[in-house]
Design brief:
Radius of gyration: 28 Å
Distance between the termini: 75 Å
Number of helices: 2
Helix content: 40-55%
Number of strands: 5
Structural class: alpha+beta
Order of helices and strands: EEEEEHH
Strand content: 25-35%
Shape: elongated
């Protein structure tokens, strides 16, 4: 099914369903765009993955996504989306494990750090000490700050 409607300033907007077979799976997606810019979103067997392609301004006199070229490009993009979805599907347990490890590392590092409020209080105290002359921000000859 293909829908064509007048776009704002870039010619016609095309919207159509695209089907391919990849690795023995029927893959379905939705292609939409205009003559110089298309987006393909996979709808089956995966969801929430999309990609796009555009033709640079200088090449527009020679190329466009109208007709057979656009359909071939959309099918190629849909096949690539299938492979990305398949990879993510196979690697999800490993990715979840790595994400949990990363969150634990961030939590460990964050425990010893100031909160924003604590940093603000320490900064105010140091600023008052600097203004009273109790400390200085001028380094000594040895490269140390006098506290």
């Amino acid at each position: 099914m293909s829908v064509i409607s007048a776009g704002p300033a870039q010619g016609f907007v095309v919207s159509q369903i695209v089907n391919v077979t990849a690795n023995g799976h029927d893959v379905e997606g939705h292609m939409f765009g205009n003559s110089y810019d298309i987006t393909v979103e996979i709808t089956s067997p995966f969801r929430n993955l999309s990609t796009g392609s555009y033709i640079m301004y200088l090449a527009r006199g020679h190329y466009s996504f109208d007709g057979e070229y656009g359909e071939l490009r959309a099918k190629e993009m849909l096949t690539n989306l299938f492979w990305v979805g398949d990879y993510l599907n196979r690697k999800t347990p490993m990715l979840r494990e790595k994400l949990a490890e990363h969150r634990q590392q961030v939590a460990k590092v964050s425990r010893g750090r100031f909160t924003k409020e604590e940093f603000g209080r320490c900064r105010q105290v140091l600023r008052k000490l600097l203004q009273r002359g109790d400390i200085t921000n001028i380094p000594s000859y040895r490269g140390q700050v006098h506290l």
